Amino acid sequence: MKTLLKILLTAVAVMILAYVLPGVGVASYVSALIVAVVLGLLRAIVKPILVVLTLPITIITLGLFLLVINAVVVLIADYFISGFTVDGILWALIFSLLLSFLQSILYSMLEKEK
Questions:
Q1: Is 39:10 a contact under the CB 8 Å cutoff?
Q2: Which of 47, 57, 87, 94 could form a cystine bridge with 23, CB 3.0-4.6 A?
Q3: What is the DSSP track for 27-91?
Q4: What is the helix (H) or strand (E) element at residue 26, kind and residue range?
Q5: Cα 75 from Cα 87, distance rounded (Å)
Q6: Strand partners, 25
Q7: What distance in Å separates the CA atoms of residue 15 and residue 27, rounded to the nearest whole number?
Q8: Which of these, 51, 46, 26, lies nearest to 36 by C-alpha position?
Q9: pTM for this one?
Q10: pLDDT digits over 28-38, tens only?
Q11: Which one, of 68, 87, 88, 81, lies nearest residue 40 by Cα?
């Protein structure tokens, strides 16, 4: 149940960011739900592989390259989901940063309700 609620909160965050950021678009709330699920899967499967493959550059940049990896994950989601558009790597980077920030706020509110 908690996982479904987190997916719904992520979908709400995606809708908010699509409304606020001009370089990001979501066609509908159903597309936002699909984006939330796909981003969760990509972060669980693809991101660890990318982190291992880019470990030397991540160490050299003191971890800042992880921001680029997050942006690449968002661009991969953009490629696979037809109702979700991101206009470039800069918008993907901004979107991933703000999405992480919004998720932390929403998830902390979820924990306080317990």
A1: yes
A2: 87
A3: S-HHHHHHHHHHHHHHHHHHHHHHHHHTHHHHHHTTTTHHHHHHHHHHHHHHHH-TTEEE-SHHH
A4: strand 24-26
A5: 9
A6: 85
A7: 9
A8: 26
A9: 0.90
A10: 999 999 999 99
A11: 81
State whether residue 23 is helix, strand or coil: coil
Whose tokens are 């309700």? That residue is 113
- pLDDT tens digit string along 47-101? 999 999 999 999 999 999 999 999 999 999 999 999 999 999 999 999 999 999 9
Any residues with CB less than 8 A from the CB of 10 and at least 6 apart, and which? Answer: 36, 39, 40, 99, 103, 106
Give the position of tokens 């979908």: 11
- 4: its two tokens: 């479904």
Length of the chain: 114
| Residue pointed to by tokens 């149940």 | 1
What tokens were used for 31?
């597309």
Tokens of 113: 């309700």
